[in-house]
Amino acid sequence: MSIVVTTPTGNIGRHVVRELMNAGKSIRVIVRNPNKLGADVRAYAKIVQGSIDDAAILTEALNGAEALFWCVPQSNTQENVLEYYLHFARAAATAIQQTGTPRIVAVSSGGKGIAKNAGPISALHAIDDVLDATGAAIKYLRCGHFMDNLLWQVEPIVQQGVFFYPLPSDFPIPMVATCDIGAMAVRWLIHQDWLGQSGIGVHGPEDFSLNQVAETLSKAFSKPVRFQPVPPKAYYESILSHGSSPAFAQSLVDMFAAVAEGIYRAEPRTLDTTTPTTLRQWVENVMLPVAL
Questions:
Q1: pLDDT digit string (tens) for the chain, length 292 residues
Q2: Of 30, 63, 79, 274, which has the fewest beta carbons less than 10 angstroms from its beta carbon?
Q3: What CATH number does the domain containing 54 carry?
Q4: Is 24 within a domain?
Q5: Does residue 187 form part of some domain?
């Protein structure tokens, strides 16, 4: 039986595909453009061409499948952030119910039960509620802040030695590498001995303040890098200037405001939620090759 992978070319999905291939698992991938897959993936996986907001495409892929890796693709042009996420969730729920997919591992966010008006975090939690109604066994990965989001700020880090967020400089938050999120997803996709619907934190190795992130970047880049807190309005204007929609820009402002209120504390850090890739390792393995 196959495991179905959505967003197989995305920041998390590509790691899921690679780990499932390494484990010798049968996989099906849903992708709009198969040419974006590596040649080895195209040779290995069954490809279902289409979009995961299409219930018919999802149903085709899920027929007879043992598990689904679910992740909504990122977009910075959303006109209604909540509705953007929910229209994917409705398609998934329809296909899951029609095919009786037994197990789902879904990328969600930390802060469930605490986050209010938290932009994409609240939208991910709304997806959880839609999927819960299917009755399938679901494991939600309640992730901390992605280390990989720092890639959006490679240019100011390299050129000016500075990066920006509308967050306090000394407020610690969990930061996790997307490769570790993929590994956590595969752990639950492969195992068949779990039932019910529950979430698990995915927290990275430790909580970091953004001043500590700056220290790590300074060491890795061998030059001073500092963190500069910015007002929400200035951050909003910066996101707009890079081609994002007003709705998406506002959703990020709302998200960071909620993060600063401590929503990630909803999922306590434990040995099971602590993942191995350190920020320094991630910077050296992922960011430096992009930046230099």
A1: 799 999 999 999 999 999 999 999 999 999 999 999 999 999 999 999 999 999 999 999 999 999 999 999 999 999 999 999 999 999 999 999 999 999 999 999 999 999 999 999 999 999 999 999 999 999 999 999 999 999 999 999 999 999 999 999 999 999 999 999 999 999 999 998 999 999 999 999 999 999 999 999 999 999 999 999 999 999 999 999 999 999 999 999 999 999 999 999 999 999 999 999 999 999 999 999 999 8
A2: 79
A3: 3.40.50.720
A4: yes
A5: yes
Q: Is the pTM of this model over 0.90?
A: yes
- Answer whether residue 189 is part of any domain: yes
Q: Which two tokens stand for residue 248?
A: 């998406």
Residue 141: give the domain boundaries: 3-147+176-203+262-275
255 inside domain: no
Please check whether residue 142 is in contact with residue 279, taking contact to mean a CB–CB distance below 8 angstroms. Answer: no
**DSSP result, the chain:** --EEESSTTSTTHHHHHHHHHHTT--EEEEES-GGGS-HHHHHHSEEEES-TT-HHHHHHHHTT-SEEEE-PPP-S--SSHHHHHHHHHHHHHHHHHHHT--EEEEEEES-TTT--S-THHHHHHHHHHHHHTT--EEEEEEE-EEGGGGGGGHHHHHHHSEEEESS-TT--EEEE-HHHHHHHHHHHHH-----SEEEEEE--SSEE-HHHHHHHHHHHHTS--EEEE--HHHHHHHHHHTT--HHHHHHHHHHHHHHHTTGGGGS---TTT--S--HHHHIIIIIHHHH-
Number of domains in the chain: 1
